[in-house]
Design brief:
The chain crosses the membrane at residues 12-33. Keywords: Membrane, Transmembrane, Transmembrane helix. With 148 residues, this protein is α+β, with helices and mostly antiparallel strands. The chain folds into two domains: 2-33; 37-135, Pleckstrin-homology domain (PH domain)/Phosphotyrosine-binding domain (PTB) (PH-domain like). It is 31% helix and 29% strand. The protein is built from four helices and seven strands. The strands form two sheets. Strands 6-5-4-7 form a four-stranded mixed β-sheet, covered by helices on one side. It has a three-stranded antiparallel β-sheet with strand order 1-2-3, covered by helices on one side. The longest helix is centred in the N-terminal third of the chain and has 23 residues, at 12-34.
Amino acid sequence: MLFWLSIPNGTWRPVAIAQVVLLSICGLAYLAYTRTIIRVDAEGISERGFMGLVKDFSADEIGSVVLLDLYRSGALDTQPQLFVTGTDGRLLVRMRGQYYSRGAMDTVVDQLGVPMVRVPEPMTLQDLNRVRPELLYWFERRFTRRGE
């Protein structure tokens, strides 16, 4: 539509440049998404994130795995979430049900061979934030008091 409106005026070049820039950004975002991967072996776990940052953790650093079902916001259905935590309790790797299947999560659990904590009841993000805020990303955390 913008081309149709801008060609008679001769102002189509900025529209074409903007389109090329936006398509390039979308292409780079898609490429970054397809290159994300989690590798697990006897040595430990390695994750290449969306922005290409690679994080490696040896088997000695891994303390436990937490597997739970988290309610999606504004919905009644749940998605599995897998949290690989360090021996000090900090979050090392998170697998979200939006991107990874339950089978992929089970493969990670089997390959790591560390203690697994399976939360039997589904949780909301608010419940998880109250009980284990260290498992959430910084932008998901809400400032709440633990006793409430």
